[in-house]
Each structure stands twice: as structure tokens, then as C-alpha cells.
Amino acid sequence: MSTRIKRQRGVSMFIVLVMVMLSSLLVIWASRTALFSEMITGNDSDYQRAFEAAQAMVRDAEFDIMGTLADGKTECRNGAAYVGCRELAGGVFFPVDEADFQNLSDTLRTATPACVRGICLGNNGKFLNSKSELDAMKEVAATYGAYTGAKATAASNPLLITSAGKAPRAWYWVEVLPYDIGLATKGGLAQTYAPDADSPYVYRITAVAKGLKPNSMAVLQTVFVRKPVD
User: Domain Type 4 fimbrial biogenesis protein PilX N-terminal spans what residues (predicted)?
Assistant: First the structure.
């Protein structure tokens, strides 16, 4: 009788060990699943933060082109020393007429890349192909509020905040592209989206924002047209 009892105890111990092992595997699996889900959520949140920062950069660039402060209404600067948000001295500002564009072209052609303080010549649609090209563009790009006076606070997107000793995490640059105003006479979309005949230029805006994670980055590119005031 005692031998049978010992055998039953041995089987029970084996069953308990199997159950403990299965429970441990389930706990490990659940932990890995939770960690993986947390990583995905964190990466997605960081990308969304970068994407929203890039959107804010595009809007800031549009205000810069229009020559207004961040409210979109008030003129950036007054006086003969400024054109819109940019100083007249140095010749790097968004052109008002053909003479301005020629002066801008002459200035930027001597730069490598052909861009100064976020204003660039058109590059025939070429996009960034390497980290070295991106790093070169960041050196000549504009940062949030540098010309429009827009301020990023602790309550806003942290990627937009630039302070002393802290490298920016978001940039924009604008390519100035001449527009054949004669296309507007052909009707259709060419007429609907044609710029002001007195300032026949369209602006290709590229905004880049790096997330807080090393490999997180958002890039937006859009075309902006200054329409004549009715």
C-alpha cells in the first residue's frame, strides 16, 4: 500500500512541474507581447510627433513666404530695410519681381548647396538621396519661428523648441520656382492655381522633423502659391 502512495506522489510532482513550466512560458510570452506592443506604440507616437512638427514647419514656411507673423495677418517687418520677413541686405529674400529673382539666383548659384537661410533655387525635383545631403541641407535650412516670430513652448511640440546649446530637430527650406504666367490663359487648373501675375513664382516647401528616437523622422513636401488678393 505504501509503494502505491509513493508512486502517486511522484506523478503528482511531475504534473505540477509541467503546469509550472507552462505557466512560466505563458508569462514570458505575455511579457514579450506586451513589450512588443509598447515598442510599436512608442514608435508610432514618436513618428506622429515628428509628423505634426513637420506640418507646423510647413505652415511656418508659408507665413515666411507671405511675409507675415505667425498669426498670418500682421506684417513681419516694416521699413525699407526688409522684404517681408527677411532683411534686404544680403539679397536673400523671397522675390517680389523678376529683378529680385535674378538677384536671388545670382546669389544662390555661388552657394553649395544652392540655398541660404532656407531659401533655395529649384533643383529639378531632386530629393535627398543620402544622410550627407540631408546634413548639408540642415545647415542652410530655416528653423521654426526664425523669421516669423512663432514661438514653441513647453505645451507645444517639443521638437520645435530650439534653445541655446540645444540642436534643432526640425527644419524647412523653400525652393523658388518661376511660373510661366502664360499658362494661366489656357484655363483649367493652370488658371485656377496660377500665382499673382506681378509675382509669378511657386514655392516648393520641404519640411523635415526628427523624432526623439534615433531612427524616427518625418519628411513633408508641398507646393505653395501666393494668390492675388481680390
Answer: 9-56
